[in-house]
Amino acid sequence: MNNNLNDSKLESLLRGLAPAVASPALTQRVDDELKLDMSWLSTSRRKPHRSTNWLMSAGWAAMGAAAAIAVMSHLPNQDTHGGAGTLASSSSTTVLPASTIREWDDTPGNGIHRGRSSLAEKRTLVISRELQTWVDPRYSTAMTVEVPSQHNLLPVSYK
Amino acid sequence: MEAPFDWKRTFEQLAPQLVLYARQLVDSKADAEDVVQQAFVRWWRRFPEGDSNHIPLLYAAVRTIALDQRRSDHRRVNREAKSDIVVAGENAPAFDPQPEQKETAAIVEKALQALPEDQREVITLKLWGDLTFNEIAAMTGSSINTIAGRYRYALQALHKKLAHLRADLLGESASPAINILPFSPPTTEALP
Question: What SS3 state is found at B74?
Fold first, then answer.
């Protein structure tokens, strides 16, 4: 108990000593730093909407363009199996079509139908699978995609 | 809503205690003021309303920055310690005593410097920072029992140091100096 009393006296003595005040230079430095911070904040708040809208528009446009390029580069090209058009497009891009494999998986008969000339026509549903491979010579990489498809074929003649 | 630069009122109230605390962690008053400047600006940016509930976070910021600075400046401090360069304000008094307190303030300052750093830190935060043991424990990452123990050990050590230093200052022996002080050395019963 006596010791607690002494402790409290000691605490009172210590608390009674006021820490030295901060130097005016310190206050001035804090003032300068906060003013700098406030001026930076005020300039950034001046035109938030305009900059945000512009950035948003540019961002969406860039994302759209990137998506379009990605889709176009991965879609199977109908003219990639020979022809001048294919060669021209191949020379303008670095990704070259390497090979195309088409396989017929099934050819179920689709029945006899009457055509416009009232003649009997046998239609055939062809279920096929197309494998296309592109090669990028820059990185020596190859990409192969599989394109499933279904077509109604009208045979012209039977032998 | 407070005025834009109402920070000054808060700063004037807290800066002396913050600088005193920072001086327990770094070597010079100049370094301590650098630490307080960084910590206060960082704290004010986060809590511009100056809520007193967030004051423990301000002390925590002082601690973090001081320890970082001490680590990064370790080599520089060693180099300067070997040189004869005297940094301005290095030995500035830590307290701003009333005329009748000057002697006591000098003794207390020496006694504080003689304490281990962890005890000095707790004493400073508790007595001049007005933080609770819980708050000190949270900011130092120690248990509340550890903090309470350090505080009690520090008080006990201060009893001894103050009596001894006071005797040195007056050129007297330790025993009459004890009677001069408004308290007597504690016994080991005070230890937790």
Answer: helix
